[in-house]
Amino acid sequence: MGKYFGTDGFRGEANVNLTVAHAFKVGRFLGWYYGRGHKAQVVIGKDTRRSSYMFEYSLVAGLTASGADVYLLHVTTTPSVSYVVRTEGFDCGIMISASHNPFYDNGIKIINSMGYKMDASVEEQIEAYIDGEMEELPLATEAYIGRTVDFSAGRNRYIGYLISLPTRSFKTMRVGLDCSNGSASAIAKSVFDALGAKTYVIHNGPDGTNINKDCGSTHIEALQAFVKEKGLDVGFAYDGDADRCLAVDEHGNVVDGDRILYICGKYMKEIGQLKDDMIVTTIMSNIGLYKACDKIGLKYQKTKVGDKYVFENMMENGYRLGGEQSGHIIFSKHATTGDGILTSLKVMEVLLEKKTTLGTLASEVKIYPQLLQNLEVTDKKAVLEHPEVKEAIREVEQALGTDGRILVRESGTEPLLRVMVEATTQELCEKYVSKVIDTMKRVM
Prior knowledge:
Blueprint: E1 5-6, E2 9-13, H1 20-34, E3 41-46, H2 50-65, E4 69-75, H3 78-88, E5 92-96, E6 105-112, H4 120-130, E7 148-150, H5 152-164, E8 174-178, H6 188-194, E9 198-202, H7 221-230, E10 234-238, E11 245-248, E12 254-255, H8 257-270, E13 278-282, H9 287-296, E14 299-303, H10 307-317, E15 321-323, E16 329-331, H11 340-354, H12 358-362, E17 370-376, H13 380-384, H14 387-400, E18 405-410, E19 416-422, H15 426-443
Parallel strand pairs: 3-4, 3-5, 4-7, 8-9, 8-10, 13-14
Antiparallel strand pairs: 1-2, 2-6, 5-6, 10-11, 11-12, 15-16, 17-19, 18-19
Helix pairs in contact: 1-2, 1-4, 3-5, 5-6, 8-9, 8-11, 14-15
C-alpha cells in the first residue's frame, strides 16, 4: 500500500486529504504516461457524490493539459468503466468513487487497458509526481492539447451487454432493488425491466449527499423490510459504485457474499463451468462457507482481503468464480472486477434454472456468528507488533481452537485496524473481540 493509493485507489475526504490538486496531478501524469508515442485516450466515470463533478473536471484538466483525449461516461458504475476500457480500446479508465464510504469521501480508481486495477508500480510513479519527486511534465500546446468527448454511448453498450447475458426471461419474478442512491440508480432498473422482471426500486433518487446513507449493501435492513412488505421473490442491494451486491431472500433474510459464492459455485460446478471445481475466497470468508463447500466437494482458495487479490489469483490459475463476503463477486468469463448488477443476474439465473427460492439455496450454508470491530490508530504496524497485542491474539486463538478463529488486519484504505472473531456464539465473539481491542487501546 502506497502513500496515497491503497487497495482500491486513492481515497480520502474530499478537499481534505483528497483535493482537486491531487486529481489534477493524477490526470497530468496519466495523460503524459500514456501519451508517449501516440494520442492518449482515457475514459472517466463517476458516482453520484457532490464532489465527483469537481474531481471529474480536475482530472479532465490534467489529462487534456498533457494532451490526452478524455471520454466521459458521466454517472455510471465501476464495472462499466472496466468493461468500456477493455472493449473500446482505451489506454486506461478512471472511476471517481469512494464505493461504500459516506458522501463526503471520494476516490480515484485507475483501471488499465485490460480492465484490471492499475499496477502498483504505476501508482508509485503517480505518487512520486504528486510529491514533486519527478521533473515537471511537459504541457501539450497548440493542436496537441486534448479534448473531451461525451461518451454516454459507452455506458449504454455496457447496459446492453448485461441484458444479453441471461438465457431466461425474468417475467415471473418480483424483484426488489436498492440502488444506494448511487451509480446503480442509472442502470439497474433498466436492466431488470428489459429482462421482464416486475421491478420494485428504492433509494434511486441521488442528490449528491445521500449516497450510501441508511441504504444499499452497507445498510441492507431497508431492503429486508421492503422485500417483506411487498412480498417480493428476491431483493438485491448495491453499494455506491455498484461493484458489490448483497441479496435478500423471500423471507427478508440477508444472503451475503459468502452464500452467493456458494450458490453460484455449486451451480457452476454442476453444469461444468467451474475449473477444478474451485472458487477463490478471502481470509474474511466465514467458516460456514468452507464447511458447506467440503460437503459437496467444492474446492476453495484463500487470498488477502480485497477483490484485487481475488482477481489476481483467478487470472494466475484460470479460475472462473471468486469474491468476498462483502459482495464483491467476480465472474471472470464476463468481467475483470466485482460487478454488483452482474452478480444479481447470475443469482437470478440459478433461481430460474433450479426452480427454487433463494432462501432454500442459501439454507445449505450455516453461517457462524461473526463480529468485526474497527479501531482507528495512528500507527497500524506499531500496534500490531506490540508484544501485549500479539499475546492477546495468541490467547484468543488457543481458546477458540477449531470452533472458531480470530483475524486481525490493517485496513487497505483507512487508518484502521480490523479485529474479526468467528465463534459458536455471538457472546464469545463479543468477548474475544473486546479482549483484543481493549489491549490495543491500552498500548496505543
